[in-house]
Amino acid sequence: MAECVGVDSSTSAHTMDKSIILPPDEIFRNLENAKRFAIDIGGSLTKLAYYSTVQHKVAKVRSFDHTAKEAHSDKLYEISVQEEVTARLHFIKFENTYIETCLDFIKDHLVNTETKVIKATGGGAHKFKDLIEKKLGLKVDKEDEMTCLIKGCNFVLRNIPHEAFVYTKHADSEFRFQTTHPDIFPYLLVNIGSGVSIVKVESEDKFERIGGSSIANLPTPALMFSYFGQRFDELLQLASKGQHTSVDMLVKDIYGGSYGSLGLTGDLIASSFGKSATADKEFPKEDMAKSLLHMISNDIGQLACLYAKLHNLSRVYFGGFFIRGHPVTMHTITYSINYFTKGEVQALFLRHEGYLGAIGAFLKGAEEDNPNQYRWVENYAGSSGLMSVSPDMNPMQRARSGTFDMLEMDRLERQLVKLPLLQDPSSYIPDTVDLTEDALAREYWLFCFEDALDGVVQRAVASQPDLPEAPERAEKFRQKYRHKLQTLRHQPFAYGSLTVRSLLDTREHCLNEFNFPDPYSKIKQRENDLALKYYLKAVKALEKLEWEDRQLALVSGVLAGNVFDWGAKAVSDVLESDPEFGFEEAKRQLEERPWLVDCYDQWFERLKGPPHRCALFFVDNSGVDIILGVIPFVRELLSRGTEVVLASNSGPALNDVTNVLTLDSFSYSFLLSSRLDKVLATLVRERKTDLVIIEGMGRAIHTNYYAMLSCESLKMAVIKNSWLADRLGGKLFSVVFKYEVPNRLHMIHSTL
């Protein structure tokens, strides 16, 4: 969310306001490269969408072939920073009062565009048609509102993992985000605006309005101003303070208690506004507002339940002007759905439901480019996130002048699919701990990331010693990421479920925003050089061991390599204070057996059997970890006749050590569902992979610890965080070695 500076607070909220100053580095970014526009204008809010190209720096690795005669260097590789262009979608939401100022801003900053048409939808598209065409010089092409709404809904459900949520008012975490099923269809969309439309969506292009109601027309502006003297947002604020029981007639008011034979509890509303019809007195406006809200929500909820049951649909999404993230409306809708379905159907809400029309209109205008062939990911650095649900903040915060919300999404160039080896992709939850719900863990990890910020800034500057503007960019990164952390401390639900992985994603997005593709590049290069020099000595030492001793030594090597993690403070402190700390020292730091989770004996017995056909090994992309830990382990598997596929993060990698198939994921962890490169997934299937190995604290503990696979799996990690070790019942450098087989009779159960 960005706030614009106002210079005339007396301007009426119902006229166009040109008194705001828009910060170009926060709002309407990359307009100079904008290529396509769409707009959705409702009764009070405008949502603008456009496509742009973004140039940023990426770290590239170049390896040298020393078998070639023309080799002139002893270097095995070099890391360089290059420019790369990617596609980005921008969505901005603001009040209609600022539409003229925003259009002027766009016109002044739009350098060059081939676009001649702007797609438009929403009830206000006709009203502002002449203004848009005059200001931007673009022809307004109006699109069907419901079609745009459905296209936008499909898009966010398909591309944003934690888009949908259940709202629970009195829970520790009001938001409970849902894992999106790989197949998003069919579902019911209940759009509540000036009226209610109930739409059954069966596929990308097949949907049908199966019902509706005019009930939502009750809180019209005329009604609100004639009786309440307030706008809709203010009415909801008023309702949040009211007691509907002073106005509504309850079952117990009629029968003195519950009506057991009909299953009616005493607190159930028997007649909305019932007491106001029989009492000759003035009722508080907040109580009347609460009663009105309950009446509308209950009727809409009952309608939605009836249609969901009639069409055998379990997924019901609510959106529209009536919702917009307001806690009071979400709570009353949720209560109504729970009551009428006895918990069989959940009321689902969307983080970005306010953008659906604009997204759909944009997609209609971009059909020739087929944007749905790509995957898009939310860019946390440029997105506002979900706002607070606090009744004291949320409605007025949304209504206040000068508030802009943004959503940015970046295009992934590769096709991504789920791992074919997951037992049940629909139930796969990657993250071990949800910080949204675990307050103690949340506070600890937010402190850790903020405490580490100075070190990240220093390394970012050091990674670009030849660029004099690097310190200035690094300071901007510091300010933006610190602001994000502060937002997440107060609104942990802002970007969906808060996890260690999402905190790292946010940091990575902010670093990329200011052109720091890899702050640790210099450290990695130095560590790689040292590890490569030690590699042959390590391999020869292993070859001298007897087979039985070698198997344990190989596992210990992987674990020792995992100790080298500059992202872990306990390790970075050691590495910075003791430059001589090496691979053998790391082995001595490891916990002695039995380990915290110790399935080594079962793994050793399995090695006495036939070799695996193919092993998929998820690894780090650089350093001691892969060179001295993983590669010797892989050599042993190869010697057994097992084919090995290495998969690393798609960030900077030491590509000369082996043919690494990249995995489009995160700098610290990865997802097995909907995040795998299609080439890798195809290879896994073709090679009949029967062993998956996941190593590292981020990949095997913070994520994927509970992932259930249809083949054998190994999860290996060293716990390099004292707080986490203590919580798991271990100590610093405790070892997790978890071996699982899909047959439940032989499953090794280990719980942290």
TrEMBL record:
Domain Damage-control phosphatase ARMT1-like metal-binding, residue spans: 453-658
SUPFAM superfamilies: Actin-like ATPase domain, AF1104-like
Pfam family, one: Fumble
GO biological process, one term: coenzyme A biosynthetic process
One GO CC annotation: cytosol
Catalytic activity: (R)-4'-phospho-S-sulfopantetheine + H2O = (R)-S-sulfopantetheine + phosphate; (R)-4'-phosphopantetheine + H2O = (R)-pantetheine + phosphate; (R)-4'-phosphopantetheine sulfonate + H2O = (R)-pantetheine sulfonate + phosphate
Compartments (UniProt record): Cytoplasm
Regions crossing the membrane: none
Keywords: Acetylation, ATP-binding, Coenzyme A biosynthesis, Cytoplasm, Hydrolase, Manganese, Metal-binding, Nickel, Nitration, Nucleotide-binding, Phosphoprotein
GO molecular function, one term: pantothenate kinase activity
Cofactor annotation: Ni(2+); Mn(2+)
Signal sequence extent: none
Domain of life of the native organism: Eukaryota
Annotated family: In the N-terminal section; belongs to the type II pantothenate kinase family.
Subunit-level organization: Homodimer. Interacts with PKM.
NCBIfam families in the record: panK_eukar (TIGR00555)
Function: Phosphatase which shows a preference for 4'-phosphopantetheine and its oxidatively damaged forms (sulfonate or S-sulfonate), providing strong indirect evidence that the phosphatase activity pre-empts damage in the coenzyme A (CoA) pathway. Hydrolyzing excess 4'-phosphopantetheine could constitute a directed overflow mechanism to prevent its oxidation to the S-sulfonate, sulfonate, or other forms. Hydrolyzing 4'-phosphopantetheine sulfonate or S-sulfonate would forestall their conversion to inactive forms of CoA and acyl carrier protein.
Protein's name according to its UniProt entry: 4'-phosphopantetheine phosphatase
Organism name: Neogobius melanostomus
